[in-house]
């Protein structure tokens, strides 16, 4: 099963877990499995239209899914997804 790395701000919704194993053949399916298993995650990851929020970056291994096939990107059991919230500063 692919692993999903959870950022610190979302860990309160995953019982403190840093890594979650989620089934799915695509990035979108794995994220949906995460969202279903951990209520409240969906609202933090997705906008009103159901798209990954602009300020949330999702990486498959070291590649931003926006430069791949987005949520339709296929994943394998040994892959790792990382959810990385954008950090604003000045």
Account of the 3D structure:
- The chain is an alpha+beta fold and 90 residues long.
- The protein has a single domain (3-85), classed as Ubiquitin-like (UB roll) (Roll).
- 18% of the residues lie in helices and 21% in strands.
- The chain contains 2 helices and 5 strands.
- The chain has helices at residues 27-37, 41-45; strands at residues 3-5, 19-21, 56-60, 63-64, 80-85.
- The chain has a 5-stranded mixed sheet, with helices on one face.
- A hairpin with a 2-residue loop joins strand 3 (56-60) and strand 4.
- It is globular and about 25 Å long.
- The termini are far apart.
- 18% of the residues are buried.
Strands side by side in the biggest sheet: 2-1-5-3-4
> Spans of 5+ residues with little confidence (pLDDT < 50)?
none
- Element string (H = helix, E = strand): EEHHEEE
Quote the average pLDDT.
94
Structural class: alpha+beta
The number of E-state strands comes to: 5
Shape: globular
């Amino acid at each position: 099963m692919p692993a999903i790395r959870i950022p610190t701000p979302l860990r309160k919704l995953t019982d403190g877990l840093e890594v979650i194993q989620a089934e799915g053949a695509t990035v979108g399916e794995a994220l949906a499995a995460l969202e279903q298993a951990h209520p409240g995650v969906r609202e933090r990851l997705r906008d009103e239209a159901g798209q990954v929020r602009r300020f949330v970056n999702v990486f498959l291994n070291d590649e931003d899914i926006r430069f791949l096939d987005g949520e339709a990107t296929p994943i394998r059991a040994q892959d790792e997804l990382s959810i990385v919230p954008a950090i604003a500063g000045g």
